[in-house]
Amino acid sequence: MSTGSALGIAGAVAVAVTAIGWRTVLTMVAVSIIALAVVGFVNVTSIMFG
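^ Major facilitator superfamily (MFS) profile domain-containing protein, sequence as received from the core. Prediction below:
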């Protein structure tokens, strides 16, 4: 990942934190991680039993 995109992401995160607060950002991140974990688990189980 290039430095420019990393700075852009960091800036976007900082703006989001300032606008909506830490708890909301952390909740959104946690929800997305859980969703990815669930999707991955479903894929693995469907491959195992498929």
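The chain is about 90% helix and 0% strand.
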